[in-house]
């Protein structure tokens, strides 16, 4: 079975939530493993196309088959993807670029001991992955705008059922299907070091419990304070740098992104 769609972006924009909701739909197949990273990692590409397609072997009669790797938007070559799978439908979720960059930092801050978000926010992993317009245009030039469904993180936060309905309609499946867990918290993390420790102890199941309890909120806020937060000065500086891209993105997707500019 070959994929009919890809979720290509972006990181820290509810793509895990989306993967889990798509997996519940009886007409959609996604592999158990999210983020296969076939089109952006050479060591995965070296395993060959058969390795990639093996992730879809369990697909049966589903009309929509695909996977979500949110780094594809920035790290994969759409022409190479189209050479293998022309006509793919592409799903994109965009997020306020400063919020996205800070969320990415909270996840990997343990790799930057003694550094605050302000110290590293202009590194490509944080800043570059929050630039959208050129990458969207590049993918649209190859696959066509009709084959891109772009929604916002805010859409999923504020109106998750409506957002899912649009994705389902785009993929050509029953848009009235109601998955469970639609209202669950999105992109909630606990202190990354604790997450890694729980994984090492094979207590990964405990992460979801901690995330949903008051202690999870306490740990999360304590961690955010410890890494400096995305303060107003930092935000204003970054917004000024992102402004041109935000305005280009507004035109491309025909959405008002005023909330990203302040």
TrEMBL record:
Gene3D superfamilies reported for this sequence: P-loop containing nucleotide triphosphate hydrolases
Keyword DNA repair included in the entry's annotation: no
UniProt keyword Hydrolase present: no
Annotated transmembrane regions: none
Pfam families assigned to the protein according to its UniProt record, in alphabetical order: Sulfotransfer_1
Domain Sulfotransferase intervals: 8-189
Keywords attached to this entry: Glycoprotein, Transferase
InterPro entries named in the record: NST/OST (IPR037359), P-loop_NTPase (IPR027417), Sulfotransferase_dom (IPR000863)
GO MF, one example: sulfotransferase activity
Residues spanning the signal sequence: none
Name this polypeptide is given: Sulfotransferase domain protein
Organism from which the protein derives: Posidoniimonas corsicana
């Amino acid at each position: 079975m070959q994929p009919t769609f890809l979720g290509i972006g972006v990181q820290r924009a509810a793509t895990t939530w989306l993967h889990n909701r798509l997996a519940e739909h009886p007409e959609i197949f996604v592999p158990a493993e999210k983020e296969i990273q076939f089109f952006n990692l050479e060591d995965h590409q070296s395993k060959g196309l058969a390795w990639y397609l093996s992730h879809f072997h369990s697909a049966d009669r589903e009309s929509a088959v695909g996977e979500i790797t949110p780094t594809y938007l920035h790290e994969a070559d759409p022409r190479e993807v189209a050479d293998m799978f022309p006509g793919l439908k592409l799903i994109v979720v965009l997020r306020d670029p400063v919020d996205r960059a800070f969320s990415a930092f909270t996840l990997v801050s343990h790799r930057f001991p003694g550094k605050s978000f302000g110290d590293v926010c202009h590194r490509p992993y944080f800043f570059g992955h929050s630039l959208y317009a050129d990458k969207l245009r590049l993918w649209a030039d190859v696959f066509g705008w009709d084959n891109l469904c772009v929604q916002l993180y805010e859409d999923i936060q504020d109106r998750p059922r409506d957002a899912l309905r649009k994705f389902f309609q785009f993929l050509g499946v029953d848009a009235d299907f109601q998955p469970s867990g639609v209202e669950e918290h999105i992109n909630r993390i606990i202190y990354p070091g604790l997450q890694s420790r729980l994984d090492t102890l094979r207590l990964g199941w405990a992460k979801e419990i901690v995330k949903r309890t008051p202690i999870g909120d306490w740990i999360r806020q304590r961690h955010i304070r410890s890494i400096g937060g995305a303060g107003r000065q930092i935000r204003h500086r970054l917004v000024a740098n992102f402004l041109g891209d935000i305005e280009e993105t507004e035109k491309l997707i025909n959405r008002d992104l005023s909330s990203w500019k302040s």
